[in-house]
Amino acid sequence: MSALNVCLPSPIAESWDWQLSAACRDADPAVFFHPDNERGEPRASRVRAAKRICLRCPVRARCLNYALDSSERHGIWGGYTEDERRTLQKRREMQSSPASIRPGHQDCGRTLAARAIQ
């Protein structure tokens, strides 16, 4: 009988201990996650309140990186809304892609032949 190799995940505490220092730790989670159909000024006011908490957070960058790395789809993380994180994620992906396949990198100023756009 052969020995079984098991790859264990890293301890969870080390991955999440940064949250113990988060400024939002004792805040109402409802500030960071919008209720269904929240729109207009109520939503804008809640987002501003969440971002004020994030501004004073000592682990803000770590929180944002967690949200980007895990593709967190909901809530305010690291001071960024869902839409703002999507924009950051797209930038991140563009920066990590090879220059040769980046849109517009070497094509800037070039004109397409008429047959290419038909």
UniProtKB/TrEMBL annotation:
<comment type="similarity">
    <text>Belongs to the WhiB family.</text>
</comment>
<dbReference type="GO" id="GO:0005737">
    <property type="term" value="C:cytoplasm"/>
</dbReference>
<keyword id="KW-1015">Disulfide bond</keyword>
<feature type="binding site">
    <location>
        <position position="63"/>
    </location>
    <ligand>
        <name>[4Fe-4S] cluster</name>
    </ligand>
</feature>
<keyword id="KW-0238">DNA-binding</keyword>
<dbReference type="Pfam" id="PF02467">
    <property type="entry name" value="Whib"/>
</dbReference>
<dbReference type="InterPro" id="IPR034768">
    <property type="entry name" value="4FE4S_WBL"/>
</dbReference>
<feature type="binding site">
    <location>
        <position position="24"/>
    </location>
    <ligand>
        <name>[4Fe-4S] cluster</name>
    </ligand>
</feature>
<keyword id="KW-0004">4Fe-4S</keyword>
<keyword id="KW-0614">Plasmid</keyword>
<feature type="domain" description="4Fe-4S Wbl-type">
    <location>
        <begin position="23"/>
        <end position="87"/>
    </location>
</feature>
<keyword id="KW-0479">Metal-binding</keyword>
<feature type="binding site">
    <location>
        <position position="54"/>
    </location>
    <ligand>
        <name>[4Fe-4S] cluster</name>
    </ligand>
</feature>
<keyword id="KW-0408">Iron</keyword>
<dbReference type="GO" id="GO:0051539">
    <property type="term" value="F:4 iron, 4 sulfur cluster binding"/>
</dbReference>
<keyword id="KW-0411">Iron-sulfur</keyword>
<dbReference type="GO" id="GO:0035731">
    <property type="term" value="F:dinitrosyl-iron complex binding"/>
</dbReference>
<protein>
    <recommendedName>
        <fullName>Transcriptional regulator WhiB</fullName>
    </recommendedName>
</protein>
<comment type="function">
    <text>Acts as a transcriptional regulator. Probably redox-responsive. The apo- but not holo-form probably binds DNA.</text>
</comment>
<dbReference type="GO" id="GO:0047134">
    <property type="term" value="F:protein-disulfide reductase [NAD(P)H] activity"/>
</dbReference>
<dbReference type="GO" id="GO:0003677">
    <property type="term" value="F:DNA binding"/>
</dbReference>
<dbReference type="GO" id="GO:0045454">
    <property type="term" value="P:cell redox homeostasis"/>
</dbReference>
<dbReference type="InterPro" id="IPR003482">
    <property type="entry name" value="Whib"/>
</dbReference>
<feature type="region of interest" description="Disordered">
    <location>
        <begin position="89"/>
        <end position="109"/>
    </location>
</feature>
<feature type="binding site">
    <location>
        <position position="57"/>
    </location>
    <ligand>
        <name>[4Fe-4S] cluster</name>
    </ligand>
</feature>
<dbReference type="GO" id="GO:0046872">
    <property type="term" value="F:metal ion binding"/>
</dbReference>
<keyword id="KW-0805">Transcription regulation</keyword>
<keyword id="KW-0963">Cytoplasm</keyword>
<dbReference type="GO" id="GO:0045892">
    <property type="term" value="P:negative regulation of DNA-templated transcription"/>
</dbReference>
<keyword id="KW-0804">Transcription</keyword>
